[in-house]
Amino acid sequence: MLDNAYHILIVDDDARLASLLKQYLSDSKYRTTVAESAEAARKKMEGLSFDLIVLDRMMPGEDGLSMASTLRNSTSENRNIPILMLTAMAESSDRIDGLEAGVDDYLTKPFEPRELLLRIEAILRRSGQETVTNICFGDFEFNITRGELVKNGDVIALTTSEQILLKTLAMTAGVSISRETLSQSSGAQGRAIDVQITRLRRKIEKDPRIPQYLQTVRGEGYVLWAD
User: Fold this and answer.
1) How many CB atoms lie within 10 A of CB 124?
2) Domain end: 99, 127, 155, which one?
């Protein structure tokens, strides 16, 4: 393994899943360290440097939300480490709770290992640059933090579901996201996610039938292409 490989801290009380994650990420050329609790993770961070934390939400003792929030509000050098939260809690409100706690992305269990890897790669790409709150595509600018979509200075009205959907796509722009993940984040069930995508395309595409920005990835899901 390369000495300059990204170092990922896996925080999960499920020893079997943590072991599988460690093996998969190690096979993908990442350095990995495992902690079984928030307390153990903090001890690891005292002596080691990490580029990203893969954090379980539900754990005995301090849960992942509390750890993420505490870390973000601390004055330590670890406060800016990117966090990808893994959880079985799939309601849109749960995702919002995670984002409000300061996590950079939120992936629900069960998940596809390839999607996990793509999300990690996207987070690490962003972490090497200044924090991105706005993304642009065509005449549009979307503020991820506020969920505000603007076209040539005019605010475009979005429903709550459309805001959540666009935020989810924008946070990993250029990376395809599965229908299942988008359904979990927006609260849409079954093929309803396709209806939401169609409505969103009507607001951001010149020709919704031939989308330029919000495209379908056959066999995978959808991707938002930013400038």
Assistant:
1) 16
2) 127
Sheet holding 105-108, edge to edge: 31-35, 7-11, 52-56, 83-87, 105-108
Instruction: Find the radius of gyration of the CA atoms of the chain.
Output: 18
Place of tokens 């503020």: 143
CB 156 within 8 A of CB 199: no
Give the Cα separation of 201 and 39 in Å (integer): 45
**Whole domain around residue 69: which residue ranges?**
7-127
Number of C-alpha atoms within 13 angstroms, CB side, residue 211? 20
Whether 107 and 181 have beta carbons less than 8 Å apart is answered as yes
Return d(Cα 89, Cα 187) in angstroms, integer. 12
Q: Retrieve residue 190's tokens.
A: 């079954």
At residue 144, φ and ψ (nearest 5 deg) are -65, -40
For residues 219 and 114, the answer to whether their CB atoms sit within 8 Å is no
The burial class, CB within 10 Å (0-12 / 13-18 / 19+), for 219 is: exposed
The two three-digit tokens of residue 209, written as one number: 């039938």
- Domain boundary at 108, 127, 146, which? 127
Task: Give per-residue pLDDT as tens, 20-67.
Answer: 999 999 888 888 999 999 999 999 998 888 999 999 999 989 999 999
| Whether residue 36 is found in the same domain as residue 121 | yes
Query: pTM score > 0.85 for this model?
Result: no
β-pairing verdict for 7-11 and 31-35: parallel
The CB-side HSE value for 112 (13 A sphere, CA atoms) comes to 12
For residues 23 and 122, membership in a common domain is answered with yes
Q: Which residues pair with 54 in a beta bridge?
A: 10, 84
